[in-house]
Design goal:
The protein is built from three helices and eight strands; from the N terminus they run ββαβββββαβα. By secondary structure, it is α+β, with helices and mostly antiparallel strands.
Length: about 150
Amino acid sequence: PRGASEDAPMEELLVINVVCRDPLGFKGPELLQSILESGLRFGDMDIFHRHESMTGHGEVLFSMANGVKPGTFDLDDIDLFTTRAVSFFLGLPGPRHPKQAFDVMIAAARKLAHELDGELKDDQRSVLTAQTIEHYRQRITDFERRHLTKQR
């Protein structure tokens, strides 16, 4: 199967928001440390991306934007930076192995929430339940099924 071309329209967007329980928000340096440990690297569009390899090489598995508009991060100002929320997102068509990419994304979001007292929310900003996660996985399965039938 050919890789998703750069201009392929986005069919599915799986979003996990991590919202800080502290009204003051996540602090830049702590946020940075947690996501760097999960292998995310600052890059295109002034947001963070997780590539296939922890070193920042290979295809992008998923990305993380600032949950507050305009959604970007300013690394020069990271020491004073705070935000109430961040959004992890994975677009389909995207990574070659979207289920594994989704698992890595969930792990990074959970780690962040655990370390910095955040709460996991879905794309509607409702609490992320095991059921929602299952629903996201089903969306990936459905997407893969649609694309398999297209390739025959």
